[in-house]
Amino acid sequence: MPVPALAPYDDQNIFARILRGEIPCRRIAEDEWSLAFHDINPQAPVHALVIPRHPYVSLADFSARASQAEISGFFRAVGAVARQLGLEEPGYRVIANTGLDAGQEVPHFHVHILAGRAFGHRLVPASAE
Ligand code: 5GP
Questions:
Q1: Of 12, 22, 44, 100, which residue is 20 to 30 A from 119 by alpha carbon distance?
Q2: 66 lies in a domain?
């Protein structure tokens, strides 16, 4: 069920539980600002998720409330994870589903890194246009 971009933060969401170590994940990297792990239901040969350590519901929430250090630390981590996974050539796609129409399901801000095949230019399924 998609979640609103500016819903109150629910500290029982699945990524909050992963951050607290209550449920496992296939960890890729972590630092002061972020945790990166493999998606449980991959949509491409490589499908990683990067999440901030602090509680933000969505990109809308993160971009409004996070500090400059947190924003820069987080997005540097996204690039570093892609580099660590060897994705810079031939490339990768980054997606941040935000709110209801984007189909965001987990209400803790996250970035998807998708790679391992050519995605082409189309960003949304033809049926959605
Ligand atoms: P959203 O639709 O919110 O942008 O994406 C949420 C993503 O989280 C989905 O791709 C889904 O497969 C992934 N996901 C949901 N639950 C878990 C989990 O328990 N572990 C991991 N690693 N990924 C999850």
A1: 100
A2: yes
Residue 129 pLDDT > 70 = no
- From ligand 1's centre to the CA of 36, what distance in Å? 12
* Number of domains composing the chain: 1
* Residue 128 in this model has a pLDDT that exceeds 90: no
What distance in angstroms lies between residue 40's CA and the mean position of ligand 1's atoms?
A: 6
Smallest CA-to-CA distance from 90 within 55, 109, 114, 61 is with: 114
41 lines ligand 1 (CB under 6 A): yes
Range of 94's domain?
26-117
Q: Is residue 18 part of a domain?
A: no
List 38, 54, 108, 110, catalytic entry:
110
**What sign has the CA pseudo-torsion 111, 117, 123, 125?**
negative
pTM (2 decimals)? 0.97
Q: Is 127 in the pocket of ligand 1 (CB under 6 A)?
A: no
Q: Over the stretch 47-91, which tens digit does the pLDDT of each residue have?
A: 999 999 999 999 999 999 999 999 999 999 999 999 999 999 999
Q: Going by CA atoms, what residue is nearest to atom 15 of ligand 1?
A: 40
CATH of the domain at 41: 3.30.428.10
Residue 126 lies in a domain: no
